[in-house]
Amino acid sequence: MRRIVVGAAVGYAANRCMDVATSWFYDQQSDASKAREEEVFPGGAIVNGGREVARMLGIDADEQRIEQLGIGAHRGMAMAYGAIGGMLVGFGMRPMRAGLIIGALAFVLVDEALNAVQLEPSPTDFPVEAHLRGVVGHVTYGAVLGAGLTLARPFLRR
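^ that's the sequence the OP posted. Answer follows.
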């Protein structure tokens, strides 16, 4: 249980760092790229995730609550990935390897594969910068998760 809790805490911290990296990258994007992304996916992934959570819970939420739900879902996934990382390190995987593998898998599974199975919008509808932002964010998440798991390694051992 200790590995799950420690890993989840590290995952939360890594997610906050990911937010900083993706926000920075978004600020660097061209206005045309931002406009295209908003046209294709109004509100972005966080808001869309919040809408999905509200729909699943059967609640009627305003835009502020929808954003909170989306952020909560994003943090929750990051904490779950962190818990998996804590377990992997506890089973003997090197912390940085665990962090980077999890960051890469999160990008491939959530950002690309999950989007690819949806009919609308298609991943090809997004500007390339949106995909690159996902890469930057998930590499940041994985690296920070790996570094955090390295620091927490004494708590993850048997």
